Amino acid sequence: EDKVVQSPLSLVVHEGDTVTLNCSYEVTNFRSLLWYKQEKKAPTFLFMLTSSGIEKKSGRLSSILDKKELFSILNITATQTGDSAVYLCAVHLGGSEKLVFGKGTKLTVNP
Amino acid sequence: DGGITQSPKYLFRKEGQNVTLSCEQNLNHDAMYWYRQDPGQGLRLIYYSQIVNDFQKGDIAEGYSVSREKKESFPLTVTSAQKNPTAFYLCASSTTDRPDTQYFGPGTRLTVL
């Protein structure tokens, strides 16, 4: 069974802290790994990763994929209260339209 | 503005009633998807459609039905056979050559009393 596991499930930090969110996967036919941010309603796309070892960056957020160890991390530096959200990791399975989602990590950034 | 709309935002129904959730997109995407999200859970795929008049079951299709009569619209019916329908329902769309890049609507929160 294809599965995506995120950790931790919940995290509370103070503004300015750096956080690392984890995503591991076991799937039959990996195509790509995606990170989404979900604040209250619709998840919004952050990154898509297909190749190992290549870091993707967007402002204070960055992500990297390790296809040998089957995991990805999402880093957020100098966190702000606006970073508070649920961060979802999903894997796109090759040969299909399906995305398999993890349960998400709920990040709370306190002032 | 291009995007995906879902209506209503909140929906309350009595147990045993069927209810239809609306999803419309003007992104000219061929593929559309329905997901269910429960508290503390990730998204689970209910149904998806790659083309008009065709759709496939996802991982949790039991108790749900869909139709795809128009490219822009992919309504989801939650039937009385769905044992635990209270959840947050998200619709998404994508091009068929990039199913990994899905755009999500704002969601409908369904509460069955």
Describe the structure.
The complex is a heterodimer of chains A (111) and B (113). By secondary structure, chain A is an all-beta fold. Helix content of chain A is 0%, strand content 59%. Chain A contains no helices and eleven strands. In chain A, the strands form two sheets. In chain A, strands 2, 4, 5, 9, 10 and 11 form a six-stranded mixed β-sheet that branches. Chain A has a five-stranded antiparallel β-sheet with strand order 1-3-8-7-6, with no helix packed on it. Chain A is globular and about 45 Å long. Chain B is an all-beta fold. Chain B is 0% helix and 50% strand. Chain B is built from no helices and eleven strands. In chain B, the strands form two sheets. In chain B, strands 2, 4, 5, 6, 9, 10 and 11 form a seven-stranded mixed β-sheet that branches. Chain B has a four-stranded antiparallel β-sheet with strand order 1-3-8-7, with no helix packed on it. In chain B, strand 5 and strand 6 form a beta hairpin. Chain B is globular.
Distance between the termini of chain B: 36 Å
Helices and strands of chain B, in N-to-C order? EEEEEEEEEEE
Query: In this structure, how is the largest beta sheet of chain B organized?
Result: 7 strands, mixed
- Give the strand tally of chain B: 11
Q: Most extensive interface: pair and counts? A: A-B, 23 and 25 residues
> pLDDT below 50 for ≥5 consecutive residues: which ranges of chain A?
none
Approximately how much helix is present in the residues of chain A?
under 10%
The strand count of chain A comes to: 11
How much of the residues of chain A is beta strand, in percent? over 45%
SSE pattern of chain A, N- to C-terminal? EEEEEEEEEEE
Overall 3D geometry of chain B?
Answer: globular
Q: Using the alpha-carbon principal axes, give the shape of chain A.
A: globular
Average pLDDT, all residues of chain A? 94
Largest sheet of chain A: 6 strands, mixed
